[in-house]
Design a protein that fits this description.
It contains 14 helices and 49 strands. With 888 residues, the chain is of the alpha+beta class. A hairpin with a 5-residue loop joins strand 30 and strand 31. Strands 8, 9, 10, 12, 14, 15, 16 and 17 form an 8-stranded mixed sheet that branches. An 8-stranded antiparallel sheet has the order 29-28-30-31-34-39-38-37, with no helix packed on it. The chain folds into 6 domains: 86 residues, Alpha-Beta Plaits; 309 residues, Rossmann fold (3-Layer(aba) Sandwich); 85 residues, Immunoglobulin-like, CATH 2.60.40.10; 170 residues, Chondroitinase Ac, Chain A, domain 3 (Sandwich), CATH 2.60.220; 98 residues, Tick-borne Encephalitis virus Glycoprotein, domain 1 (Sandwich); 47 residues.
């Protein structure tokens, strides 16, 4: 009996050991390292596949899946030429309209007369399959025919190994509907996009990485056939990675997809290990494959832009993911939530971006361009839990990063002269891409040129002749715009001076005197200054007052002339009149050449239109060919500053025509320009103080040393002068594009960052070679020189959000550029993140070994107890036998 028990115990031990050996066999992923050595031994790469039970092979990955025993695994782990990975389980990410991402605006965009809907593009949806018989997808299956009109054009069932990726769960159908549903109400984000249905999750929503890898491989190999632009993964392994993770099987496939301009998009995950699903804040990390290098991770927000589910401190794009209605099995539509619902919004947007790029430039966007489009646009959401500004996707704004309308050519060069016999000229303007073109002349209302055009070629009507300013504007389909301006000098004949501008037709009013010296009625003549229609008119001797007027009959030049035996002619054929406004400050100017009165020893009177609030004028009494010859401070030779009313030397100025014109007399050569108030003009202007401009106001008084107090009356009197501070307030659009401005000491630039925070920059000091400014946030004070540029993080330790560059420092002014940016700050190497104190997988075999040893020791201990008991029983039996003999 006891022998039987011992045998049973021994058999039990053997059975346990055999069972342990059998159960130790597992399916693993084996991948080859790059550049394996050529002299490998028998257990090396060359013979591994021949000696193992291989269950799955790959064509784009140097590796396979195999069932291995414990002994085989131990042998494989000693091989430095391979990587052994455990198979990870993945599941559909599901927690239990086209929302505000401006996708419908993209549908209205046209390029080459084609709407941007994702048409001709395909997205690989790796999920539970797709119910292609659903009306949302046209009730049909394309059966891998690339010319099929079905929405679900192709795919494969990697779970069952056939080419029928029908959905038996519902998750994949919902995801695919978000991309390209044809339903009128629950319309997909990119309804023109075709679906490639890759079934990688079973009826319970589970799958593994070999299956996913095989599907990615299929999509890459068929990328050209179906024009695949994105792989959408609404699944995850349930892990929570705070930094970029790795997967020996998936990593090389993802990089291969990216190198072929296929974006890989993955849901970030729906919860984290420290919270339950009802209170999930999701801040400890994201799941795989979203955390893999090169993958675009997608988090979820509600319509009110509240963050949900998993996220990390790395780059992540947000998309709607709460209460999303889409297709479901059986022809219905249901609401679902989770990052699974967010990922297809991004995949669909990428499809539309790729369609636009291919239509416009016949090229595919690379991964960097796609990520830039998603990252630099959209509404910035400040996540207080992670202190990160996440971009919530905006399809329309993302499309805007691909457009940049430019002026390619204009048929006239700036400051050139155009000859015309009529008030029309031909104008040809070309653009880098299709845009709406408008223009204005001399500040007139904008005139429509053409719409959705790349060239404007028409004859335009001019408002007059002379110096005309043309402003050109273009705006593309997504609102990106550009503008330029030029000045043309319009003349009816070939000009005497190529750089000059002419008034052209003009009028002359002459008043003659009778024999008694009384003026006769004025006589007005139409003349052509420097024109082809020459006039020669004879008058009797006498004194004449001559007025040259503009097209509005406003006198611009006035002078007296005497016709007598000495001066028998007045030749106006060489007269050149240049009249206009500067483009920089709108200063009016008038230049007169060729009107020589030296034989009469007479001067001219000039009438100049008053545009500025300042009353300063600058007389340049020397031959002048361009307004650019005036100095900025009216201090060059032959220049004289006159404050009107007032006089300087032989020149005097009064205001006339209800103070709308300057009247300057005493002119020989005739060039005059308005000039604004400035320090050094000799006038105490508003805002100037003894400390800011002693040249005009006078030196500041030395403070009295008398501390006796003095009189307290008078209501204050002796306080500092209040200096007005110029505030510069760029718009958010200007800040996004990059705002360039000229500043002076004391100026304040007021702006908002992308997350809506208000900030300002104060210009503290301006030196000849440096500028000192303060960003009033912390505050941050900077001392910069010309050419310096700096990036600042005003609201986040993870990202720069303000860029400042000093373009130029000249005198008391500086030209600077500021721009809202969103650029990650790269942390120093060596920073270690704290990890949860979990038992590492590498220690698990050791623990199993210790457990097995303990179990064996227990068996040995029990066996010894049994042996001891048997010996005791034998003793007892022997004693009983002896006693029995004695009794006999």
């Amino acid at each position: 009996m006891l022998k039987r028990r011992r045998s049973i115990a021994l058999l039990l031990l053997i059975s346990i050991l055999v069972l342990a050996t059998i159960s130790s066999a597992e399916e693993v992923i084996i991948t080859y390292k790059d550049n394996p050595s050529q002299d490998l031994k028998i257990s090396s790469v060359i013979n591994i596949e021949e000696n193992l039970n291989v269950t799955k092979k790959f064509s784009l990955v140097k590796g396979f899946v195999a069932d291995v025993s414990k002994a085989e695994k131990e042998l494989l782990e000693k091989n430095n030429e391979i990587i052994i990975s455990e198979i990870q389980e993945y599941k559909a990410i599901l927690d239990v309209a086209v929302p505000n991402i401006n996708a419908t605006d993209v549908w209205g965009v046209q390029i080459n007369s084609t709407n941007i809907t994702g048409a001709t593009q395909s997205v690989c949806v790796l999920d539970t399959g797709v119910d292609y018989n659903h009306s949302a997808f046209g009730n049909c299956w394309g059966n891998n025919n690339e010319s099929s009109s079905c929405v679900v054009i192709g795919g494969y069932d990697k779970i069952n190994g056939d080419d029928n990726p029908d959905d038996d769960h519902g998750h994949g159908t919902h995801v695919a509907g978000i991309i390209s549903s044809q339903h009128a109400t629950y319309r997909g984000t990119a309804p023109g996009t075709k679906i490639i249905a890759m079934k990688v999750l079973n009826a319970t929503g589970y799958g593994n990485d070999p299956t996913i890898a095989s599907a990615i491989e299929w999509c890459i190999e068929n990328r050209t056939r179906f024009n695949i632009t994105a792989i959408s993964l609404s699944l995850g392994n349930g892990a929570y990675e705070a930094t970029t993770c790795t997967n020996a099987l998936l990593d090389p496939l993802i990089q291969t997809a990216i190198s072929n301009n296929i974006s890989v998009v993955a849901a970030a995950g729906n919860c984290d290990a420290k919270t339950d699903k009802t209170t999930c804040d999701g801040t400890i990390g994201i799941s795989s494959p979203a955390c893999l290098s090169g993958v675009i991770p997608v988090g979820a927000v509600s319509d009110s832009d509240t963050q949900y589910y998993q996220r990390w401190s790395g780059w992540e794009v947000l998309a709607p993911g709460i209460g999303i209605f889409s297709a479901q099995l059986g022809g219905t539509y249901v609401s679902a939530s989770g990052t699974s619902m967010s990922a297809p919004f991004v995949s669909a947007t990428i499809s539309m971006l790729q369609q636009y790029s291919k239509l416009k430039n016949n090229v595919s966007l690379n991964s960097t361009q796609v990520q830039k489009a998603l990252n630099t646009t959209g509404f910035r959401i400040n996540d207080t839990a992670t202190s990160v500004l996440y971009p919530r996707i905006d399809s329309y704004s993302a499309l805007g990063t691909l457009t940049n309308p430019q002026f390619s050519s204009i048929s006239y060069a700036n400051l050139s002269t155009v000859n015309t016999s009529t008030l029309t000229i031909p104008l040809v303007v070309t653009f880098s891409e299709e845009a709406d073109f408008t223009y204005s002349i001399n500040g007139s209302a904008n005139k429509t040129g053409c719409s959705s055009c790349s060239i404007f070629n028409q004859t335009i009507v001019l408002p007059g002749t002379g110096n005309l300013t043309f402003n050109f504007y273009i705006s593309d389909v997504v609102g990106n715009s550009n503008s330029t301006a030029l000045i043309l000098y319009i003349n009816k004949t070939t000009p005497t001076y190529s750089s000059a501008s002419y008034i052209g037709e003009s009028t002359i009013s002459m008043i003659t005197e009778d024999a008694t010296g009384q003026p006769n009625s004025p006589e007005t003549l139409q003349v052509y200054v420097n024109g082809s229609n020459n006039l020669s008119i004879s008058y009797p001797q006498g004194n004449y007052t001559i007025n040259l007027t503009d097209s509005l009959n406003q006198t611009i030049v006035e002078f007296n002339y005497t016709l007598n035996e000495t001066n028998m002619t007045l030749n106006l054929s060489d007269t050149v009149l240049m009249k206009g406004n500067t483009t920089s400050n709108n200063n009016s100017y008038l230049i007169v050449r060729g009107l020589n009165l030296t034989s009469q020893d007479r001067t001219k009177t000039i009438y100049l239109e008053k545009n500025l609030a300042s009353n300063n004028t600058c007389v340049r009494d020397t031959e002048t060919f361009s307004v650019n010859e005036f100095s900025s401070l009216c201090n060059a030779p032959n220049e004289y500053l006159i404050n009107c009313p007032g006089s300087t030397g032989v020149y005097s100025c009064t205001l006339t025509e209800n103070d709308t014109y300057y009247k300057i007399s005493g002119m020989s050569y005739s060039a005059i320009q308005e000039t604004g108030d400035f320090c050094g003009d000799g006038i105490s202007n508003n805002g100037e103080t003894c400390s800011s401009c002693s040249a005009d106001v006078g030196a500041c008084a030395t403070p009295s040393s008398d501390t006796s107090g003095g009189s307290g009356g008078g209501g204050g009197g002796g306080g500092d002068a209040v200096v007005s501070v110029e505030k510069i307030e760029p718009t958010l659009f200007e800040m996004k594009q990059g705002f360039t401005t000229t500043v002076e000491e004391g100026n304040v630039i007021i702006f908002n960052t992308l997350n809506g925070e208000a900030h300002n920059i104060t210009i503290d000091e301006l030196e000849p070679i440096s500028i000192k400014l303060t960003v009033n946030s912390d505050p941050i004070t900077l001392l910069l020189v010309e050419g310096d540029e700096i990036k600042l993080n005003l609201s986040s330790r993870e990202f720069y959000n303000l860029y400042i560059k000093i373009n130029l420092i000249e005198g008391a002014r500086a030209n600077i550029k500021i721009q809202n940016i969103y650029e990650q700050i790269h942390k120093e190497d060596g920073i270690v993140n704290e990890e949860d104190t979990l038992i590492p997988k590498s220690f698990r075999p050791f623990i199993y070994f210790i457990t097995a040893i303990a179990f064996i020791i227990l068996i040995v201990f029990i066996n010894r107890k049994i042996n001891k008991l048997e010996k005791t029983n034998k003793k007892d039996e022997k004693t009983l036998k002896i006693e029995a003999k004695r009794e006999r």
